[in-house]
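Reopening: DNA-directed RNA polymerase subunit Rpo3 still failing for me.
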Amino acid sequence: MEVDILELSDRSAKFVLSKVSTSFANGIRRAMVADVPTLAIEYVNLYDNTSVLYDEQLALRLSLIPLVTDVETYVPQAECDVCGGEGCPACEVSLTLSAEGPGTVYSRDLISSDPKIQPADPNIPIVELKKGQKLVLEAIAHMGYGRDSVKWQAGVACGYKNVPVITIENCDACGHCAVECPKGIIRFEDSGAKVSSEDVLKCSLCRLCEQVCDINAINISFDENAFVFTMESDGSYTAKDLALNAADVVKGKAEELLSILDQF
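Support: Ran it again with your exact input. Result attached.
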């Protein structure tokens, strides 16, 4: 397996994963979306709510606020050996909020019992309070998996495509392929049409250039064992940590399967 990083920021990444099968690549994608545990608000104790939103609407908004997650400290509640799933400092975090209008309540107004666990984005609006309106609550965040609820989904835009392979031979430089290409990656030299190695990855494999070529000079295919990955994190993890945790999940499942098979 080889990984070639093309772009990397705190919340997004683009890389080429090669020398792997399609099933492995899809396993990494699914792990990013569904199998990397995160913290999310699950229960809300409302002590005072005179805002325009119903209690249930507030709870829904709070549950969808991404929280920075420390996977080394917290475990999913269902897997907690300390409390057996009842709720304890090993699997849950308390966040409180007390606000009075006029003004807008933001995610940064949530006060966490653990300074490491904070909203991933401090500027998410929760509700606008008019003069005299109040909101006082306690929110309980638990660790969970994206496969159980979207509020625990750390990967919000994870996908891949096969690495395109573009072959151009005996081109007569008619220009039809360049006009048809929606990505605008086909250029012309004295010898005919060319696509630079940097632009090959931009190809969407639509094959419009291939279809419009009257002399069959262009052939579009793909590498079955190489994939261009694009991914984004909701902020629970950095993009790098999300990808590494997804790989650890796939590795752990493989080791678990081997241990089961060894029993027979």
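The first helix runs from residue 22 to 35. If you still see a failure, please send the error message rather than a screenshot.
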